[in-house]
Design a protein that fits this description.
Elements (H helix, E strand, L loop, with lengths): L5 H20 L2 H7 L32 H6 L10 E2 L25 E2 L6 E8 L5 E5 L6 E3 L4 E8 L2 E7 L4 E9 L4 E9 L8 E4 L4 E4 L1
Parallel strand pairs: 1-6, 3-9
Antiparallel strand pairs: 2-11, 3-6, 4-5, 4-7, 7-10, 8-9, 10-11
């Protein structure tokens, strides 16, 4: 029986070390390939539901609503008998800031005489869609269903009222009457013409009414 020489043992040990090193390095290639970033983008990332974004950012359509989205959708019902008493921000000594309204129409569409510096605004939704409306700085966003009307009472002037259809359609707003008690009635109708659509109504301190 022939025993392997010391030289053969050394060669076998050297070759074993080389093959072992190769085997250890082989998994690096497929692991690197598996670590490649995915091309699929999550349309509803969790950051939308974390602070401060939860109360500052609208989520994309189709995502579960966060707190800010729910507020913007106006999940607040109107007052009894369609009457809403506006919130008065001056209770805490804060004057409302009215955003600028670049008028598409340079001349007023109506004029109303404020009573003690305030006006009433009746909104009539003549569309088949729900409309989210808000008197900036005086009320929270609210929903006005199709075929319904609402009265915002004692709004200090100047005041801006925004109106957005929930189905993303266009609204044509038109003042149709004013009364001696300082009430302005506005008809909200459907329109297919973007250039004829309105999203905001502004009443100046002097009672002039503008649409944008």
């Amino acid at each position: 029986m022939n025993l392997p020489s010391q030289s053969s043992k050394n060669k076998a040990g050297l070759l074993g070390g080389i093959f072992s090193g190769l085997l250890i390095g082989l998994p690096a290639i497929p692991l690197a390939a598996l670590a490649a970033p995915s091309s699929v983008v999550n349309p509803c990332p969790s950051i939308f539901y974390e602070e401060p974004h939860n109360n500052q950012v609208l989520v994309p359509q189709g995502c579960p609503p966060n707190a800010y989205t729910l507020r913007q959708q106006g999940q607040i019902s109107g007052g009894q008998n369609g009457v809403v008493v506006p919130i008065n921000p001056n209770v805490r000594g804060v004057n409302p800031i009215q955003p600028p309204l670049p008028g598409r129409r340079q001349s007023p569409v109506a004029t109303i005489t404020p009573t003690a510096g305030g006006v009433n605004v009746r909104l009539r939704n003549n569309t088949n869609a729900s409309i989210s409306y808000q008197a900036i700085s005086y009320t929270q966003p609210r929903i006005l269903s199709g075929g319904q009307e609402i009265v915002l009472r004692n709004l200090p002037t100047p005041v801006t009222i925004t109106m957005i259809r929930e189905d993303a359609g266009f609204i044509h707003a038109m003042p149709i009457s004013t009364s001696e008690d300082g009430t302005l009635t506005v008809s909200l109708d459907e329109t297919a013409n973007f250039s004829n659509s309105d999203t905001a109504l502004r009443i100046q301190r002097n009672g002039q009414v503008f649409l944008n």
